[in-house]
Amino acid sequence: MKKDFTPEDELLFLALGGSGEIGMNVNLYGCRGQWLMVDLGMTFSGDEYPGVDLVFADLDFIEERAVDLIGVVLTHAHEDHIGAVPYFAQELGVPLYATPFTAELVRRKLIEAGIENQIELNVIEREHGSFHLGPFEITYIPLAHSIAEGNALQIETPYGRVFHTGDWKLDDDPLVGIPATEEELTEIGDEGVLALVCDSTNVFNSAPSGSESVVYQGLLEEVKRWAGRRVVVTTFASNVARLQTLGHVAEETGRALCIAGRSLDRIIEVAQMNGYLRHFPPMVDFDTAMGLPRGEVLILATGGQGEPRAALARMAEDNHPIGLVHGDVVLFSSRQIPGNELAIGRVQNLLAERGIEMVTDRQSDIHVSGHPGRPELEALYGWLRPEILVPVHGEMRHMQEQARLGRASGIPKAVVQKNGDIVRLAPGEPGKLAQVRAGRLVLDGDIIVPADGEAIVTRRRLARDGMLIVALDEQRNPQVHGFGLPLDEDYAEFVAEAERDVTDALRRLKGPKARDREEVAEAARLAARRAAQRWSGKKPQTRVILAGDRA
Predict the structure, then answer these.
(1) Distance in angstroms (rounded) separating the CA atoms of residues 402 and 377
(2) pTM metric for this prediction
(3) What is the DSSP string of 45-91?
């Protein structure tokens, strides 16, 4: 590897996102002067980024080397693997590769962004489709997951084969798609696997994730149990297998199916375009659903993660065409994503307050994960028998635990890396070579900015401490305005004292300092801020506006 991190006669791996966290997956493979990107995902913002919805990996490393990037290969269509595509594909300027279902969802994102004609999107056949990119030969290997066309990538290189799992699980009875069999995976292992780059999400789960067929039985029994009640089921919109399950459940229980949520509409349309959900029952609109007897309708709704604008939240607030009343039932056929507990709890509390019953996956077999538990990981290790294990798609505790599990299962070497670590897989002893920048970017309004930039840092401070504005007229008389300070009852008294403090501070300035606008502004700022701290215990962001300043 050259000093500028150009890969030479070697095979390198670098995660810019998704290692040390769950979500925002961006992985790079480097070989003979070229880089291959696998997935280009995003994550959703939390309280640490006020006013921000979307978070991306900082791609500065590969953007500086875009001339050496030969393509972006997408494993599947979850947002944490494709969500950043419309924001960065044009700048990267390389072709995209995906199987049909994923490609159609990506195409719609590109259309929405107005860049469909600027991006080359290559559709690869869904079962074992292969293609060459530079020194890499890539083959899609279908694996079960909680979305149609979940795929691993078999990446042939001059230095050996990499098996990049993407998101996966084992399912002996999948309702959508035909995943690779034990025999097929064993054959891949027989041919030799240099490195297994593997999903770590559920490594602490001692049991297998379970089959979608188990969920079918659980949901069927649950819906039957609530005969005569209006039943809403909320699930991840992208889980095509779950949608197929719920279609069967609706038919088995004699209920009409109603869809509430635009993302569900989109996924159903794209799935049917690509040959899935062929036997999905006809759907009824909101008016028809509300006109049916309560026990004759099954509603599929978005919002199981507590999203405030999603259908379920609006139903909970009684602000949706589908009305719920005391005794109706909501089934949460989804897992609670870490970080969403408060949002989910808010929706559930609103439902509970109105006497609406709820059932979650902790009470009934109505959800299974799309990621492998320990027995599934151990099975894959045994079939592939890699020389090296590289855990990804997890927090550090998940990846360290998978490394321990892999070594205990007989894998000779494991490399625990994090975003920004350049790892040499071959030749020679595998290990970390260098650390490069791997920060975060956020979509702030319509602009992508650094997550640690001044705008976000200032906004975080404003949220914590509030704001003061001190306006000085031509005679240096102050007017103090506070925002977000906990002084509702004492606000007038605080303002009066703060203005006196500013006046006194300005009077103490003598000579040249009294005529220096910067000295005047700083003296006023400190005096007002100290008054605010004295009254409230807060250190608000404070700005001084002098007469003649531009607003």
Answers:
(1) 9
(2) 0.90
(3) --TTSTT--EEEE--HHHHTTGGGEEEEE-----HHHHTTHHHHHHH
